[in-house]
Amino acid sequence: MRRVVVIDDDEGVASAIALFLKLRGYQATFATSGATGIAMVVDIIPDAVVCDMRMPGLGGEQVLLVLKAQPKTCHIPVVMVTGYCSPEFVGVGDAFLIKPFKCDELVDAIESLAV
Length: 115
What we know:
Elements: E1 3-7, H1 11-23, E2 27-31, H2 34-44, E3 48-52, H3 60-69, E4 78-82, E5 95-98, H4 103-113
Parallel strand pairs: 1-2, 1-3, 3-4, 4-5
Helix pairs in contact: 2-3
C-alpha cells in the first residue's frame, strides 16, 4: 500500500484529500502546518507528499526545500497544489496542480511520480 502525507493548512481540504486517497487504496495521513508536515514525512517516509503552496509559517516552497535538502527525504516526490496560480509557482515541486483539481488528476500525478 502506498503511503502519502498531505500538508494543507485548511483542515477540511487536507482531510478530504486524505480521505479520497484512502478510498483509492492509499495509506494517507495529513498535517495542517508545514512544520508538522515535515516532521510527519521524516517519521513516515511516505511514497509521496501532497503540499499546499500558501500556508502560514512554513509555506509549501519552504517545506519542499527542507524535504529536498535532507538525505532521508530528498527522494520523495512532492505534488504541489495551490488555489493561487502565480508564474513563480509554476515548476515548483515534482508536479503542480491548481485548485480546484479533479481527484483523478491528483492520483495520476502521484502515480506518475511515486516509485
